[in-house]
Amino acid sequence: MIGIFDSGVGGMTVARAVETLLPDLQIIYYGDLARTPYGNKSPETIIQYSINNTEFLLSHGAQAVIVACNSAASVASETLRKKFNVPIFEVIIPAVNRAVKTTHSGKIGVIGTRATIRSDIYARKIKLESPDLKVFSQACPLLVPLVEEGWLTARETKMILRKYLAPLKQEQIDTLVLGCTHYPLLKDLIQHRAGKNRVRLIDSSIEVSLSLQAYLNKNPDFCEALGHDTVNKYFVSDITKAAINTAERIFGRHIDLIKV
Amino acid sequence: MIGIFDSGVGGMTVARAVETLLPDLQIIYYGDLARTPYGNKSPETIIQYSINNTEFLLSHGAQAVIVACNSAASVASETLRKKFNVPIFEVIIPAVNRAVKTTHSGKIGVIGTRATIRSDIYARKIKLESPDLKVFSQACPLLVPLVEEGWLTARETKMILRKYLAPLKQEQIDTLVLGCTHYPLLKDLIQHRAGKNRVRLIDSSIEVSLSLQAYLNKNPDFCEALGHDTVNKYFVSDITKAAINTAERIFGRHIDLIKV
Known about the structure:
Two copies of one chain form a homodimer. By secondary structure, chain A is an alpha/beta fold. Chain A is built from twelve helices and ten strands. Chain A has helices at residues 12-21, 43-59, 70-83, 92-102, 114-119, 121-129, 143-148, 155-170, 187-194, 204-218, 220-225, 241-251, and strands spanning 2-6, 27-31, 64-67, 88-90, 107-112, 134-139, 175-179, 200-203, 233-236, 257-259. A six-stranded parallel β-sheet of chain A has the order 4-3-1-2-9-10, with helices on both faces. A four-stranded parallel β-sheet of chain A has the order 6-5-7-8, with helices on both faces. The longest helix of chain A is centred in the N-terminal third of the chain and has 17 residues, at 43-59. The interface between A and B is medium-sized, with 27 and 27 residues.
C-alpha cells in the first residue's frame, strides 16, 4: 500500500498520476484539510504536521510514503527519512532531475508557494546536479486559493499569472518547474503565459510517479510485499464542499472523502 | 484583561480598535496562524479550534473574550457562551445592529468568507431584528489571501473586488457589512467599488469595540475587576514574515508576536 499525503486535496494530482501509471497499486491518501494550506506556515510547523501525517499513513498500513506537497517536501523530507523506516518519495528531486535533463539554454524557472520558494530547495538541488545552470524562482502564493476557488480560466487568474511569470519570461527560461501540486490544474494557462513553444513545463506529480515506478522495477521484493487491495482510500482531516469539488475536478469523477 | 482571538492576524484590526477606544484595557491576543485560515474549514472544525483558543486565553488570565474572526463567530459563539462562564463578545451582532439602524432603503449587503456566508448568520440575525429588510450576501474567498499578500491597491485586487461587488451593486444596497476582520484593510477600495456616496460601510472591528465599551459602562463592577497591566500581549501558534508584515500594516508600528 502506497501512502500519499498533502496539506489538502492538491496532492490528489499525484494520486491520479500514480493511479494512471501504476493501476495495480493500492493508494491510501491523507489530506490535512483541517490545517491547510501549508505554504504560508513556518518550517517548524510544517515539519511537525508532516510527521503527524506520515504516522497516520503508516498506522493505516502504508509501506511507502509520497510527500505530495511541495511545501512539506521542501522542509520535511530529510526529517521524515531519518525518523521513519520506509521509502519516502517526494515531489522535488524527480522534478529537479527532469528539469536538468530538459533544459538546453541552461535557464530554469521554478514557481511555488512562499514556503517552497523561501526554502530555495529547487535552486540548491538543481545546482548540486549541475552547477552551471541558472535558476529563477518566483513565489506565487495566490495560485492555490485561485485553484481552490475553481477560477481556472478567469481573467483575474490570467492577469495574476502574467504578473508572476513576467520576471521568468524576461530571463528567457526554457524550462519551468511547477513546484506545487495545485499548479497542474492551471497547466494550459501557465503554458500559454510562459511562452507556448519556448518553455517546457515540468509536472512534479508525473515525475514523482515515474520515480516510484522506477523504484518498484528495481526492487521486485518490495514490490511483491506490497498489498494489492483494489480500493483506494482518501482520508481528510476536514471536509468541505470546496474540497469535494476540487477532488472531482482533479479526478474527473466523484471521490469519497473519509473524515478522520 | 480582555482576550481576543482570531484565525490569524486579521483580528488585530479588532485589537487596534479596542486599543483606540479603550486605551486603559489590557489586551491578550491569540492568532491561530498554525491552522489559518478558518474561512475554508467546516463548522465542526472551526468550533473545536474556537474552544481551544478560548481555553488558551482564559488560562492566560482573560476575563472576557472577543471572537474577532467572523468565521468563528458565525458558527461557534453559542457553543462558547454555553461552555465558558465569561462574557463572550463577537463581531457579528454589533455589526448587525449598526446595519439595521443605518439602512434607509432596507437593502443591506454582506461580504465575508465562504464559512461566514454559508452560515447565513448575518441575514438571519438582520431579519430577526427587522423582518422587512432585504439582505444580499456575497462570499469573497480571495480577499483574505490578497490582503495577506499585501496587494492592497493592486489592479487585480480591484478587478476581483469589482466582480464580487457587482451583484450587490445591482441590488442597490445602501449599507455594506464588512463581515471579515481582514476587510477593513481594503476599506477605501471597497468604498470606491461599492459606490462612493451611496453605500455606508459597517466595520465590525469598530462595532464590537463600541459594544464592549457599552458593556463596561453598564457593568462598573466587572470593569473594576479587570486587570490593568499596561502591556498588551500578542500570542500566535505559528510565526511567519508575512504575518509580521500584516500585523505591522494593521497597527502602523512593530508588534512583537510571541510564538506558543
